[in-house]
Write a structure and sequence with these properties.
The structure holds 2 protein chains of 2 kinds. By secondary structure, chain A is of the alpha+beta class. Chain A has 9 helices and 18 strands. In chain A, helix 5 runs antiparallel to helix 7 and helix 7 packs across helix 9. Chain B is an alpha+beta fold. Chain B has 2 domains: 199 residues, no CATH class; 96 residues, Arc Repressor Mutant, subunit A (Orthogonal Bundle). Chain B is built from 9 helices and 17 strands. Chain B has a 7-stranded mixed beta sheet, sandwiched between helices. In chain B, strands 12-13-15-14 form a 4-stranded antiparallel beta sheet. In chain B, helix 6 packs across helix 8 and helix 6 packs across helix 9. In chain B, 43% of the residues are buried. Classes of the chains: A alpha+beta, B alpha+beta. At the A-B interface, strand 14, strand 15, strand 16 and strand 17 of A face helix 5, helix 6, helix 7 and helix 9 of B.
């Protein structure tokens, strides 16, 4: 299981095989074929769950019509992206991918999975292609809580023993006299519960988790994992072993969470909401804004929000900041007044993607809380 | 020759003053129309509402007046309020404030009742806590000479922002009496309205009838209105600007709907704010600073906004730009500024 490509000839042969898989007659056959494939390194089976305010499949089809990508077959949503790798001397690379709608809502399809077998470079250029389609294609951004739930979901569905083999996280580390938020990657061998304790003790904010799923019978676990999964907070899954398991549980879970969340954030802008304010709040279980230093640190964090503008209207002892998202022109007023609640008041325009991005940024850069409509009881 | 101060700081103070005045008025509305749990039935309020004085009005009989706030607690009781965020340094000019208050202490027409009149009412002057005592002393001195200058139903209420752990607007009766027993007892003791309640219910209101400072209009346009008009094909990578089409009339219309008079209950007596002049001045400022240009050949005051990212704090950026145009200093001899407001 999971060997390694040793030479160019093997790589060519493997790519030809992958091409054949993606040219199978329909989506069902492709998904079935993907489930049984043993993928040699450095290739991997990758899934990215995305959202679109319109149907994501039709957005991607229009990209094909515009010549950005090539649609391999008219009967399936399989496409080919030809691009150069991101290195200085980029080499031409062809990345095939399938787009499949994930049936998570009765209110129409807004979420889809992009599935590909490719190497690291191929995946990076594919991700960049979709990042450039924002806000037509929006990544699903998971909170830490949702990321851990995704693993738990897979654990329940597979009835497997789960071992965490590595994790990437952000942690406040002492650099000289100052504390700085640094990205850390750690290799480990622990249960999900043990990892949760560790990250809580160290105040880490997870970015991704690698987990192995071992089949168990009467508490006796197999020595070879049934599936290996890397789950990232931006809705990406990398699978080795059973693709079907990861797809049916993790991808569908991410899609369901993302769809529900982004629909909740939808129509919050004053113009769309017929000029009736629809503020949101992030509620914390503990008082966090009693300490002035915390209020100030949140102000500093918000002023560093990427591709945005800001104005600090009040920074002490309470916070009132306005943020303008330059990706799509959404704007928000953010208030920290009571100790356990942050208010997010959308301006004239506030797309669901911009609301999601801002909340994710606050979760990553400050701390996670529970998002509700402002004024709702906890 | 007056004292020169840094104009940038003064502009930012004015910006904050205006915003806090809006919130203080909203907090006072909340105090009158809410019973602590829900909004009382048949309550109404309006900023800058057009009211008509009686024939017997001491200063302006049978004239339309526009007090800052008219708030009706019930069908037979309401309050007329005028807010002063700053007082002129020269106390001789304070009589105009008393005259204005006296003008409003009248059986005004324009309430939300069948005959537009109300049985019981009070007229209040809302003053910041840092100046309320001084003004009360001044009033007492003036009244020794002429009692008629202060109406029988008038009072002075101080307000301020309590910025301790919990942020409140506090109100306290400093002079006179309120006819409504419930409000009188609350205001005599002093009452606090949590600012979060204002954010919860009226978070979109950013203007009242008073003329907004240029800086505030510019910041609101640049951080909220203009970006909301960005279209995917209006970006010019060469100049790194978005060319946004905007017209004064459409801007006024939408800003009023979203953040001003249009966001409140409206009827023929309601006034419209922010006024067109305020938006027009902001557009002119942008044109003068090459951040906008009039679109030639189009009617209806159309402009192309040369929209770009401002890396610094938007408020500070525009304050510095206005200040630079005004050579950085201003004469403030005629004004007494309220610290912290």
């Amino acid at each position: 299981m999971m060997g390694q490509i040793r030479n160019e000839r093997e790589e060519k042969k493997f790519l030809s095989f992958i091409g054949a898989v993606f040219r199978l007659k329909d989506e069902k056959h492709i998904l079935n074929a993907l489930d049984g494939i043993d993928i040699p390194r450095p290739y991997g089976l990758k899934i990215k769950v995305v959202y679109s305010p319109n149907d994501p499949v039709s957005v991607i089809e229009s990209m094909a019509k515009g010549g950005l990508i090539e649609q391999i077959s008219l009967s399936t949503h399989v496409f080919l992206y030809k691009s150069k790798t991101l290195h200085v001397r980029g080499i031409e690379i062809n990345t095939p991918f399938l787009v499949t709608t994930l049936p998570v809502s009765e209110m129409g399809s807004r979420v889809a999975a992009i599935v590909s077998i490719c190497n690291r470079d191929g995946w990076r250029i594919l991700k960049r292609l979709f990042a450039n389609q924002y806000p037509q294609i929006v990544p699903i951004l998971l909170s830490q809580h949702e990321l851990l739930n995704a693993i738990e979901e897979l654990k329940i569905k597979t009835r497997c023993d789960v071992r965490i083999t590595s994790r990437s996280a952000k942690e406040n580390l002492k650099v000289g006299k100052r504390k700085e938020r640094k990205s850390v990657r750690e290799w480990t061998d622990e249960t999900l519960e043990e990892m949760c304790r560790t990250i809580e003790e160290r105040g880490q904010i997870l970015t991704s988790v690698d987990a192995e799923f071992y089949q168990t019978i009467d508490d006796h676990a197999h020595i070879t994992p049934k599936a290996i999964c890397k789950i990232r907070k931006d809705g990406e899954i990398e699978v080795s072993g059973s693709f079907k398991l990861a797809y049916d549980s993790v991808a569908l879970y991410i899609a369901s969470v993302g769809d529900k969340k982004l629909r909740f954030y939808d129509n919050r802008g004053l113009r769309e909401a017929n000029y009736k304010p629809k503020p949101l709040s992030i509620n914390y279980s503990q008082p966090v804004f009693e300490d002035l230093a915390t209020v100030r640190s949140l102000v500093t964090t918000l002023t560093k929000y990427r591709n945005s503008m800001h104005t600090v209207i009040h920074g002490n002892p309470y916070m009132h900041v306005r943020i303008t998202d330059l990706h799509d022109g959404s704007s928000f007023e953010i208030w920290a007044i009571p100790p356990k609640r942050l208010a997010i008041v959308p301006g004239l325009k506030a797309t669901e993607a911009a609301v999601g991005r801002l909340i994710h940024f606050i979760f990553e850069g400050f701390r996670e809380g529970k998002v509700e409509s402002y004024g709702e009881k906890d | 020759m007056g004292k020169k101060i840094d104009l940038t700081n003064q502009l930012i103070d004015d910006f904050i003053d205006y915003q806090q005045t809006v919130r203080a008025l909203l907090a006072l509305v909340a105090l009158v129309v809410h019973d602590g749990h829900t909004r009382r039935p048949n309550t109404h309020f309006g900023f800058g509402r057009r009211m008509t004085t009686s024939n017997s009005n001491m200063f302006a009989p049978k004239t339309d007046v526009t007090p800052d706030l008219v708030v009706q607690k019930q069908s037979d009781y309401g309050i007329i309020a005028e807010v002063k965020r700053s007082l002129e340094r020269d106390q001789n000019r304070w009589t105009t404030i008393l005259e204005q208050l006296r003008k409003y202490d009248d059986n005004l027409k324009g309430w939300w009742t069948k005959n537009e009149k109300i049985q019981h009412r009070n007229t209040i002057l809302l003053l910041h806590q840092s100046r309320s005592r001084t003004f009360v002393k001044y009033t007492e001195t003036v009244l020794k000479k002429d009692k008629s200058l202060f109406g029988p139903l008038s009072s002075i209420i101080e307000f301020g922002e309590n910025q301790e752990r919990q942020v409140f607007y506090h109100f306290r009766l400093e002079y006179g009496k309120i006819d409504d027993k419930e409000l009188n007892s609350k205001l005599e003791e002093g009452i606090q309205v949590p600012i979060e309640k204002v954010v919860e219910t009226l978070s979109n209101i950013q203007y009242y009838d008073g003329d907004p400072p240029l800086l505030l209009v510019l910041v609101n346009l640049w951080s909220d209105y203009f970006p909301s008009l960005i279209e995917s094909d209006c970006y010019d990578p060469e100049s790194r600007t978005w060319n946004i089409k905007a017209s004064i009339s459409e801007t006024v219309n939408e800003i009023q709907k979203a953040h001003g008079s249009g966001a409140l209950q409206a009827d023929p007596r309601s006034c419209q704010f922010p006024r067109k002049d305020a938006i027009k001045s902001a557009f002119q400022f942008l044109v003068d600073n090459k951040l906008a240009q009039p679109t030639t050949g189009e009617k209806n005051s159309a402009y192309t906004i040369k929209y770009r990212k401002i890396k610094a704090d938007i408020k500070e950026y525009f304050a510095a730009l206005i200040s630079k145009k005004s050579k950085g200093t201003t004469d403030i001899s005629g004004q007494m500024y309220i610290p912290g407001l």
